[in-house]
Amino acid sequence: MPQAEFTIIPKYFADIGVSEWTSKLSQGDDAAILEIPDGKQAVMSVDTLIAGVHFPLETSPADIAHKALAVNLSDLAAMGATPAWFLLSLTIPDTNEHWLETFSQSLSEIADQYQIELVGGDTCHGSLSITIQVTGLVDKGKYITRSGAQPGDLILVSGQLGNAALGLAYLQGRSKLDDNLIELCTNSINRPTPRLCLTDFLQDYATAAIDISDGLVGDLKHILDKSRVGALIRQNDLPVNEWIRSSGAYEYALGGGDDYELCLTMPSEYKDQITRWNQNNPDCQLQEIGQITESGYYLQAEKNSIDLTHSKGYQHFGE
Predict the structure, then answer these.
(1) Model pTM?
(2) Fold entry, domain 5-139
């Protein structure tokens, strides 16, 4: 990469995002210095998005920036954490000013939306890839893991499932969509919504949670394995769009990737709280789709019971 690499960070990535928790030392030094407030624990996650693997090559820089941060924020949401700071490592094939301006503007917008501060980063020359490491904060002992599900717990998911996989199929020419679904599904693959609005709800009621990045079937299995339990999920109860339901194309919801909705488990005694949540949060509905059992992993589809024990999550572009 030419000499311009030394100006990229101060020119395009200075002052991105403002956190509720101010950093002690941010960009401009060898490393950031952060102070964890008393009574809090740090929750950290990192993801790399590679062009042609995690997003189509023709994806706009604005969508790439949004998704790169959103998928990391989704991990924080699943743990019940509030975003605080993030680091960015950007590998680009050239210093295209329009691309960088568009990317950094979109990154700034989503960082402002979720109140997370960029505190450092790095740039490299090479094939396009974006690595973001996020740090969130949670009250001590209030974090949510994958290992707390108990037999009898309800299984719930947020939002709709399958839209992102269907959007990708449309963009790749593998599926046709009605006009009223194109924007919904392409936005779902390009601009996922991290369900940070559920942080308090998870801390109050959830026994386990995970974000659905590799498909419901595979990701729920992570909860089952960590909690050493089983599950029965009901196909007819999956929250899907009308195209999926009417065509019976539930594979998009069950095995498609990139939903970034949350799957959580909670005791059945809290059903009233689910109703109250749905009444107050029309943009992030929770849907009960099944129950945690002692053992086994099954999908009830019409009159058939399908064994999901050996099913695997979605593999992004064959990775």
Answers:
(1) 0.92
(2) 60s Ribosomal Protein L30; Chain: A; (3.30.1330)
